[in-house]
Design a protein that fits this description.
The structure holds 2 protein chains of 2 kinds.
Chain A (H helix, E strand, L loop, with lengths): L1 E8 L5 H7 L3 H15 L3 E6 L3 E8 L3 H16 L3 H4 L4 E4 H13 L10 H15 L5 H21 L8 H13 L6 E6 L2 H12 L4 E6 L2 H10 L3 E4 L3 H4 L5 E5 L9 H11 L4 E5 L16 E5 H17 L1 H22 L2 H24 L6 H32 L4 H11 L6
Helix pairs in contact in A: 2-3, 5-7, 5-14, 6-7, 7-14, 8-9, 14-16, 15-16
Chain B lengths: L4 H34 L3 H29 L7 H22 L6 H18 L13 H36 L13 H32 L1 H4 L7 H21 L5 H24 L12
Helix pairs in contact in B: 1-2, 1-4, 2-3, 3-4, 3-5, 5-6, 5-9, 6-8, 6-9, 8-9
Classes of the chains: A alpha/beta, B mainly alpha.
């Protein structure tokens, strides 16, 4: 049994080709049935996202042959001439295919390094194949192991720590200050698109109360209706400020709208409870001197971008460690997979020895009619235990040898000759 | 317990082995925490946590061996009191990180604990084989025990303050990667500080009340002007200080970075005052001399 993956991704192919080869969810079921027909024997899983289309297959025969069949399947099922995408395809066989899936699942091959969504997509692809009974034993084990390795990578490397979009970074910073956002009040000054996006992120994390301040009360009321918030007139900004835990400012004002004096007054009322100020306006709305005040944490657009870049850099630093974890996972899986080749021989060995055991046991028991039923059972158990004990070491060792050998057939052939087993077992 | 010379040597060796294994475990836990700072890996924190627990087990065992050996609670030598303090501080740290889901704080806690353990290990050869003095009565045991638990809580609060200032400074400077991401939020740290002081302050007051009651009941032992002893005056001032701090936070007047500074300064003053009194020879109440 060999493994192969054939596919294209944002690394190798433009979106024009990716969208033509993409399998929409409603077409996946029939595509899996079609793919099994093309492959003949074995299993198949199709991973199709906006950034990649990959077909994983396991079947007898060399991976190159499997790859040829997958190419043909892709061309036929998506009605695209093979020549149009052949140059953008990558093919990975056996160990490399395992390593590729583990990297994809861990987010190392993603457009945004370490993004978490891909693991869900890999799991969905496997579940779809399982539903259609298209995932055989090898692919099931491969995808389950991929999910396990990806979780280990995420949990231990920090590859997913630190967000990489402005809105998410702002929400993460708010959590670093307040722990949770439940019960926190967010004040939005102005009506910029970016401000709304950041507010949405904060509300996703549990911020409940929203104050919307705008020079135009109509606009404030419109936004308040959309976000189930409370409109505040611009003149009341200073008096409403102390009740805000988080301030998002994104007005089109030419100068500073909020200065240290506003926040000093607010802090006095708040008795030192911290405030997080996100100034997304250009030119800036909040005087940078505000950041010098204790318990006020001011971030402008450049600061947020800086944090984003630092997070990306941290993710890059984690790659080496992720690769170590993935390589160890690939080694383990490969050893297990190679060990599978020994299974038919092991079953055959066990059957052969048990046949001998039963024959000899029957002869012995026939010559001892005085034995009670209980004694006969005891003798039966005894012989079973002896056979199992004899088999245990050769079975374990055979699995190891087969996994270590490049060509396991020599080892398996020798064992078959030793035990007088039929070829083909 | 009366021991033969041979048995005495064996018990003393066992005490030393247990004590230094425990100190080694604390030092290793601190090293793991420091390595975690440089190259984060959750496995390191798990090891550090396990080593700190092993160290606590070792210290408790050494303490128990000394207790059984001498037939009295060993609470009067520098090593015994530092061992008790280390043990209580370690347990407070483990409980705090566990109940507050703030495992990242171990990176701050364990190096500080390791430092105390190393100081204790350096001082131990002078004390570990000596007989502890006998304390006068149960009240005094309770007084000393609760005092060390309160000191342990103030010590952990002091280290938590350092973590708060670290987080706040990093937020101000926009350095939000690395350890920053593994520590609790500012408000969580503020809450932890409040809880530590909230338990430490009443305990410290109870300590003083127990001590005052004991001193009043046995006035002959400390002399007629026992209440003017520098350590008692320092302790009363510190109780007042922690009272103001606790109630300031409780009523919302003292929180965040200010609370962190006050708590850190409070412990520094407490420690400094006791060290100064010891250097001037004014440290003890001499409550065991007549034993």
């Amino acid at each position: 049994m060999s493994l192969a993956v054939v596919g294209l991704s944002h690394h190798t192919s433009p979106v024009e080709i990716r969208e033509r080869l993409h399998f929409p969810p409603e077409a996946l079921s029939s595509a899996l049935i079609q793919a099994r027909r093309w492959l003949g024997d074995g299993g198949v899983v199709i991973l199709s996202t906006c950034n990649r289309v990959e077909v994983y297959a396991s079947r007898p025969g060399p991976p190159q042959e499997t790859a040829e069949r997958i190419r043909g399947f892709l061309a036929e099922s998506r009605s695209v001439a093979e020549a149009e995408f052949a140059s953008q395809l990558y093919v990975r066989g056996d160990r490399e295919a395992v390593g590729h899936l583990f990297r994809v699942a861990a987010g190392l091959d993603s457009m945004i390094l370490g993004e978490a969504q891909i693991l869900g997509q890999v799991n969905d692809a496997y579940l779809a194949a399982q539903t259609e009974q298209a995932a055989d034993k090898t692919l099931s084990a491969l995808f389950q192991r991929a999910a396990k390795v990806a979780k280990e990578v995420r949990n231990t490397s920090g590859i997913s720590a630190g967000k990489v979009s402005i809105g998410s970074v702002a929400a993460d910073l708010a959590l670093s200050i307040f722990g949770g956002l439940a019960g926190k009040t967010v004040m939005v000054v102005g009506s910029g698109k970016m401000g709304e996006l950041t507010l949405t992120r904060l509300m996703d994390r549990g911020a409940a109360r929203v104050l919307l301040v705008n020079r135009s009360l109509d606009k404030a009321e419109e936004l308040a209706a959309r976000f189930s918030g409370q409109p505040v007139e611009f003149d009341e900004l200073a008096s409403a400020l102390p009740s805000a835990d988080i301030v998002i400012s994104s007005t089109a004002a030419p100068g500073y709208v909020l200065g240290p004096a506003h926040f000093q007054r607010a802090l006095r009322t708040r008795h030192g409870e911290p405030m997080f100020v996100i100034d997304i306006a250009v030119p800036r709305d909040v005087d940078p001197a505000v950041n010098a005040l204790d318990d006020v944490y001011l971030y402008d657009v450049d600061d947020l971008r800086e944090v984003t870049e630092a997070n990306i850099e941290e993710r890059r630093k984690a790659i080496a460690y992720c690769v170590e974890v993935i390589d160890a996972g690939v080694d383990q899986f490969w050893e297990w997979l190679q060990g599978l080749a020994a299974e038919p021989t092991i079953v055959s060995m066990s059957r052969e020895l048990n046949t001998i055991r039963e024959r000899e046991l029957a002869k012995t028991l026939a010559s001892l009619p005085e034995l009670s039923d209980k004694d006969r059972q005891e003798v039966d158990y005894l012989t079973k235990r002896i056979v199992n004990a004899i088999l245990q070491r050769p079975m374990t060792q055979l699995k190891r040898e087969v996994a270590a050998e490049e060509d396991p057939h020599t080892v398996l052939h020798l064992v078959k000759r030793l035990f007088g087993l039929k070829e083909g077992t | 317990m009366i021991l033969t010379r041979q048995a005495f040597i064996l018990v003393t060796i066992a005490t030393y082995i247990l004590f230094y294994l425990a100190s080694g475990a604390y030092a290793a836990a601190a090293a793991c925490a420091l390595v975690h700072l440089a190259r984060p890996a959750p496995q390191l924190l798990t090891w550090a946590h396990g080593l700190a627990l092993a160290g606590s087990g070792g210290i408790a065992a050494a303490f128990t061996v000394r207790w059984v050996h001498w037939g009295q609670l060993p609470l009067t030598t520098l090593t015994d009191t530092l061992s008790l303090f280390t043990l209580l501080a370690a347990l407070t740290m483990v409980l705090t990180t566990w109940t507050q889901c703030a495992r990242g704080l171990l990176t701050f806690y364990l190096p500080a604990l390791g430092l105390v353990a190393l100081i204790n290990a350096a001082a131990a050869p002078a004390y570990l084989h000596t007989e502890p003095m006998r304390l006068q009565g149960v009240l005094l045991f309770a007084h000393v025990g609760s005092a060390f638990l309160a000191y342990a809580l103030f010590f952990v609060a002091c280290v938590t303050s350092a973590a708060y200032v670290f987080q706040a400074e990093h937020l101000k400077r926009r350095q939000t990667t690395g350890l920053f991401q593994r520590l609790p939020s500012l408000e969580d740290l503020d809450r932890i500080l409040y809880r530590l002081i909230g338990v430490g302050y009443p305990l410290f007051v109870a300590t003083l009340l127990l001590g005052l009651f004991w001193a009043w009941a046995d006035r002959e032992l400390l002399g007629p002007r026992w209440w003017l002893a520098p350590k008692i005056l320092t302790a009363l001032l510190m109780a007042l200080f922690y009272g103001v701090t606790f109630h300031g936070r409780r009523f919302g007047f003292l929180r965040g970075r200010k609370l962190a500074y006050v708590v850190a300064a409070g412990f520094a003053v407490l420690l400094g005052a006791y060290v100064l009194l010891a250097l001037l020879g004014l440290r003890t109440h001499n409550f065991w001399e007549s034993a």
